[in-house]
Amino acid sequence: MNQRFLSMCGVIAPVLFVFIAILGGALRPGYSHISDTVSELFSPGSPNKLLLDTLHTIFALLLVLFGIGVLQLVRKSQQSKLIGIIGASMFIAMGLLSVSTATIFPQDARGSPPTFPGEMHKLMSGVLSLLSIFSMLLIGIWSNRAKIFPGFGTYSFITIGVIILSAGFFVAKLQSPIMGLAERITILVGFLWTFTLALKMFLLAQIQK
Q: What predicted TM-score, i.e. pTM, was given to this entire model?
């Protein structure tokens, strides 16, 4: 597949997610980006759920396509190809799992009894977090060893450290008035990494075309 198109998918996906969160919050009376989580926008019975589910599915598919782009780039390298392939494959798996977190397994509405989809949402959120961290780690190692995108490996390792710290902050602030803010810090740091890698890949594809 066209490498520039796949790279642009990675540029667009984080921007689309931010748009979804802003749009969902604007359409939901009383919603707070400081105290409410993003997943609450997709809870059963939420306003405009079909619209938000559709946009979230597009976002998840963009992640999958970008992961395929990373995989294509890794396969062209000569160093640490296996590490890069595993990292890219984890990123693709993350995108595939994300498809169902808003639609099939949405978070339970706040104050409602626990349900199987809601409990699965918690489990899948944990799996997605681990896939995100390990894909960053492996792609960062591959980038360093393959000598592609100088400094990106170090940036990846710093990003992982920040995510671990911010995720710990989020867990500590569960059910607190700033829970939503704590979650958004973690999400945005991770998406900045995705956006940066995608932009570097797009510029490289432009040079090589």
A: 0.92
